[in-house]
Amino acid sequence: MSSNPDLDNFVGLSAVLTGFSAGDINPPLSPQPVSVEYLQTLQSKVDAALVTQLLSTYQTIAAQFPSDEQAAQVQSQILTDAKMGPVARNIIRMWYLSIWYDGYENDQVSGFSPGTVVSSNAYTKGLAWDAMQAHPMGYSEMHYGYWADPPQPDDSMDGNS
Amino acid sequence: MTEQTNYDVVIVGAGIAGGLAAYKLAQAGKRVLVLDGGPGIPPNRGDYMEQFYLAMAKTPESPYPPYPPGPNSPGPDKQNDPRAVVLDIRSWQTRPPTGYLVQNGPLPFSSTYERVGGGTTWHWLGTSLRHLPNDFHIQTSYGHGVDWPYSYDDLQDWYCRAEWEIGIAADVEHQEYHGLKFWNPDDPTRQKPYSYPMPEILQTYQDKVIERRLGDITLEGQQVTISPTPQARNSIPFDNRRVCAGNTNCIPICPIQAKYDASIHLGKAQNAGAEIWFKTVVYSLDVDTQTGRISGVKYKQYDDPTGPMTKEGTVTGDLYIMAAHAIETPKLLLNSATNELPNGVSNSSDQMGRNLMDHPTQLSWALMPEPVWPYRGPLATSGVESLRDGDFRKEHSPFRMEIGNEGWNWAMNDPWGSVNSLVAGGEFGAGLRSTLNGLFIRQFRFGSLVEQMPLSTNRVVPSKQYTDNLGIPRPEISYDLDPYTRAGYAAARKVAAQLFAQMGATDFTSPNMGSTSLFFYEDEPYILNGAGHVMGTYRMGHDPKQFVCDANQKSHDHENLFFLGSGVFPSVGTANPTLTIAATTLKAVDNIIKSVLK
Fold it and tell me: How many contacts, defined by CB atoms under 8 Å, are there between A and B?
């Protein structure tokens, strides 16, 4: 837990939305936690009242339900909501692809839609790369020849070790 | 105004051809000047990497100056050094043209290039196959295309030298197919064995799964085999550069320069005494009407990429070398037309700018029945070379099948495509993660590079209507695929489907019927993709009526004008052109040093 309740709620909600644990997406010792950048992006792009509604809705869910029941609650209370749903889906896209897409309000987003890459730090921490058990294209911390063998099983924190 | 510079050699273009030529000529003690329209080479690639990371579309051009392609880039009429970019291909029919190339169709020319120190080698893949012996005489052997003025045996030694200059990783024993022979270039008896400078790059796990699943299969009378690809990336430390770390990003940019790019030979050329002027756009050549010799090169300079011209001038030399590749070179020579030479410089054949070719690239993509773990390692480490040659070349173009190692990145814009479509479909959380994982780790594609036949109507001319910010005409292009090439494209698609079936893979290939790159062959739809290979517009051959330059790459019209690059290729085979650009450059420059400037 940090001293920032907005960040705690954002990370908690993001974990449910992305399918990665809070520890995976917000490693406690990370020198450049991308969660902070993403929360700032959310707050700069979306109406403050809607952000507050989103985070407090999640806070209530987290207080009332055990973690294995939170996904169903996030789906029924947030993802199906006309206002919060599109924002939540853009948060998923942001975590996986490091992009804040324009035109999210009407869910009019595709892989070719305009938007903004949050930062180069964020690009290298996109969850899509973890989902493929690879590394960000253009940012390998591996060594020559690693590609000749399958990756380690997908239970590690960052998928590319 | 003319500067009395009096260089021995003036080279136009600072890519791999210009860089190698400048290096060899400067080493031989010649006074060399290289002119390039683009900005110079940055002290490190950090800025390029940052621009790449922040680019919304990770296209081949995305890391490079002066602007990342996209809606925020100034239009081509506002830039001093604009270039063709992938994002403009979709809107090729728009008028006024939104892209640098003015495309007349009926199909869009779909390859792009950089105008920057080091040229397009910044984002080449690094594939370094030799042309096959039969590629040099396809007209004689198969009744199609145009023969080269010399044979594979005449270029073999220069291939070896090019492989050592660039740094190619390969094992000869895996490259001896379709009659390819290798021998030590310093041995006139051709008996001594040859070795590439580095051992071959380890194949990916995916390559091995494909090899196992294909087993024994014969197509068009050929045993299908998976061959490790010769690559210009380091498998061991070479030329003070480190080994490949598998960034899976050869295109658009290798973060660690484990892949060769021409900035290396530009640096060597400078160390050997060559001068390079960047942000210097050559737009015309002067010809001495008495002697027919080139007498100067006219240029315009700028500081700011969209700012005003800062200087205009002419430089002179004894000898002039055009190394500005197959679009800018003919544009500039045709733009040099005068009353005395109304068809432009070096164009008595009327072939300058004609026979523009690419390797049209058929993409077929599938899900494998087991994980193959793509997106790890170099972008491609193996290929199917079996159908690059055979008697079928009497009926349709041959092709090489590149085994892509980036899943559906090229084919379907992944990971951006699949993440977005799944999120739009309501997936989230653990289900989303698991669905994506199941997709990504089984994705696979073939990219089949088809030999394109020369057509005189496939042509580059300087636009009469559209210019860049310096007032220099932009390239205007007419482009189509002939039936023989289309038949090769269709055959490549069919073979990919057969190989998928053989491997138990699920074929997902489907042409986008709304695409502006759609074409048909025998009523079947196909999508045209470019390979980034710009070739053929100032072809070499013996007959001055049919060819722009001779076998020494000297202009048939002007004694002191030479041509380098893939523009000299009379026909293009199926090998990615860069290695052959390097080999032909070394051969031509050796002749210049020994016989012309002696």
Answer: 179
Residues A5 and B231: their CA atoms lie apart, in Å, by 52
Q: Determine the pLDDT at residue A153.
A: 83
Task: Provide the token pair at B432.
Answer: 């989303």
B406 touches chain A (CB under 8 A): yes
Give, as one character, the DSSP assignment of residue B522: T
Distance CA B254, CA B53 (A): 12
A144 inside 8 A of chain B by CB: yes
Judge whether B87 lies within some domain.
no
Burial environment of residue A102 by CB neighbours within 10 A (0 to 12, 13 to 18, 19 or more): middle
B49, A128: Cβ pair inside 8 Å?
A: no
Distance CA B188, CA B186 (A): 6
Q: How many domains does chain B have?
A: 1
Chain B residue with CA closest to A89: the answer is: B423
Helices (H), B291-449: 325-334, 409-412, 416-424, 429-440
Q: Do the Cβ atoms of A121 and A132 come closer than 8 Å?
A: no
Amino acid at B395: E
CB–CB contact A154 B203 (8 Å): no
Chain A residues 82-111 with a CB less than 8 Å from chain B: 88-89, 92-93, 96-97, 99, 107, 109-111
Q: The CATH number of the domain where B207 resides is what?
A: 3.30.410
pLDDT band at B3 (very low <50, low <70, confident <90, very high): low
Q: Chain A closest CA to B574's CA: distance in Å?
A: 27
Query: How many residues would you count in chain A?
Result: 161
* B373 vs A96, A131, A151: nearest CB: A151
| Domain span including residue B229 | 199-237+360-450+482-527
Q: Are B183 and B193 in contact (CB under 8 A)?
A: yes
DSSP H helices, B441-482, are none
The answer to whether residue B56 sits within a structural domain is: no
Which distant-in-sequence residues (6+ apart) come within 8 Å of B157 by Cβ? B185
**Spatial contact of B493 and B521, defined as CB atoms under 8 Å apart:** no
A144: closest CA of chain B, how far (Å):
5
- By the 10 Å C-beta count (0-12 exposed, 13-18 middle, 19+ buried), B31 is classed as middle
Instruction: Tell me which chain B residues have a C-beta less than 8 angstroms from the C-beta of A70.
Output: none
A147 and B378 within 8 Å at the Cβ level: the answer is yes
Per-residue pLDDT tens over the stretch A94-116: 999 999 999 999 888 999 999 99
Rounded alpha-carbon distances, angstroms, from residue B247 to A45, B284, B376, B427 = 32, 41, 7, 29
Please compute the mean of the pLDDT values over residues B359-370 and round it to a whole number: 98
**Any chain B CB within 8 A of the CB of A36?**
no
* CA neighbor of B155 nearest in space, from B135, B175, B141: B135
Q: Is the residue at B141 inside a domain?
A: no
Q: Are B433 and A107 inside 8 Å of each other by CB?
A: no
ipTM of the complex: 0.95
Please give the mean pLDDT across all residues of chain B: 97
The predicted-structure confidence for B160-216, as pLDDT tens digits, reads as follows: 999 999 999 999 999 999 999 999 999 999 999 999 999 999 999 999 999 999 999
Q: Is residue B383 part of a domain?
A: yes
DSSP B348-372: TTS-TT-S-B---EEEEEEE-SS--
Global pTM value: 0.97
Whether B299 contacts B282, CB under 8 Å: yes
Peptide bond into B82 cis (omega under 30): no
